[in-house]
Amino acid sequence: MKLGLIGLPGAGKTTIFEALTRSQLDPAQRRESRLGTVHVPDERVDRLSALYQPRKTTYAQVAYLLPAVAEAARDKGRAEQSVWLQVRECDALLHVVRNVQALDGRAPSLTADFQAIDQELMLADLVVAEKRLERLAMEQKRGKKPDAEELALLEQCVAHLNNETPLRRFPELAHARLLRGFAFLSAKPCLVIYNNPDEDEALPADDPAADGEQRLTIRGKLEQELSRMQPDEAEAFLKAFDIQDSAMDRVIHASYALLGRISFFTVGEDEVRAWTIQSGTAAVDAAEVIHSDIKKGFIRAEVLAYDDLMAAGNYAEARKQAKVRLEGKTYEVRDGDIVHFRFNV
Q1: Who contacts 113 (Cβ-Cβ below 8 Å, separation ≥6)?
Q2: pLDDT interval class at 77 (50, 70, 90)
Q3: What are the distances in angstroms from CA 250 to CA 216, 223, 244, 256, 336?
Q4: Burial environment of residue 270 by CB neighbours within 10 A (0 to 12, 13 to 18, 19 or more)
Q5: Confidence of residue 105 (pLDDT cuts 50, 70, 90)
Q6: Cβ within 8 Å of residue 101, ≥6 positions away
Q7: What is the SS3 assignment for 172-201?
Q8: How many CB atoms lie within 10 A of CB 224?
């Protein structure tokens, strides 16, 4: 699961990236793309590990991409096309919007900043869609019949984009199988992050993303400082500024919700591990996340809900209480399921 940070120059993307990944970029690296991978904090994994005392504990992971921005793009005050090429491979976008006074004294301009990037996304998509339509038209002149469904979908995309409406507003287009290869930017789920001053954790009254976007606030500089502290220092800092959850924790949870992701677990003496899947994933497809051979030789899934295991105290007792059940290929794995796959290859 990978999410890309986007936003105008000066929005605070680097600050937020460092807060999320608990890293510190050397100034010489700030013109390079950076990928930070973080463990997903999950107390269920902690408790399972305490119960099984495995040789290895593996948490789920989320990757955050900070795209490189050329100096020329900074001078123009907008992200250049190379940034869009970098984030096309991401599953979702984190749109950072400045809600603090700029270094040159400029006040925040939330609506203008938010719309500037959203329009860039739509323009990039419009170029891609129109080029494909032009190609289809040329092929049709040469006698090749275009795919009617693809043609209709692309025409709908162009109409919405010309109307300055991002494709994420239209789930049937955003998730259309025939459009996946285009990786439309405005179709990607988007979490808006307001980069707030130290003393303000509230959403802005003038919230341009209130209509249809998931959003949250991060006191960027404050959280950046927090990410660089030792655990004992951080604990005192959290209390002093009344921070309940770190930026990393909040953004990770929001990222999961944004993409409809859940976690299931495999347990044992060798390893306790969290696996990330899409909500609604069938057991046979969840098996493939672990290994393709398990999907190929799938027989049954032995399933125990995390809460039932904790209530029983151990697996054997949960089995005695008939909490462990056998499920087939089509069973939809639920968040918190502990799964043992039976297979034969």
Answers
A1: 7, 8, 11, 97, 98
A2: very low
A3: 9, 12, 10, 10, 19
A4: exposed
A5: confident
A6: 107, 108, 197
A7: HHHCCHHHHHHCCHHHCCEEEEEECCCCCC
A8: 21
Calpha distance 215→163 (Å, rounded): 24
Task: Find out whether 31 and 24 touch, Cβ atoms under 8 Å.
Answer: no
**Residue written as tokens 């500024």?**
241
The amino acid that residue 32 corresponds to is E
**100: Cβ contacts below 8 Å, ≥ 6 apart:** 12, 108, 195, 196, 197, 220, 221
Q: Is the pLDDT of residue 282 over 90?
A: yes
- DSSP H helical segments within the chain, as ranges? 13-21, 43-52, 71-76, 81-87, 110-141, 148-162, 171-174, 220-227, 231-240, 247-259, 283-290, 292-296, 306-312, 315-320
What backbone phi and psi angles, to 5 degrees, belong to 64? Answer: -120, 130
| CA dist., res. 132 & res. 126, Å (int) | 10
C-alpha 238/C-alpha 281 separation (Å) is: 37
Using CA atoms, how far residue 91 sits from 35, 96, 115, 207, in Å, is 14, 16, 21, 24
Residue-range domains of the chain with CATH: 2-257 (3.40.50.300), 280-343 (3.10.20.30)
Cα gap 211→233, rounded to integer Å: 39
Q: What is the pLDDT of residue 28?
A: 67
CB-CB contact of 196 with 224 (8 Å): no
Among 20-34, 244-258, 273-287, 309-323, where is mean pLDDT lowest? 20-34
CB atoms within 10 A of CB 21: 20
Least confident of 53-67, 80-94, 237-251: 237-251
Q: Give per-residue pLDDT as tens, 43-69.
A: 999 999 999 999 999 999 999 999 986
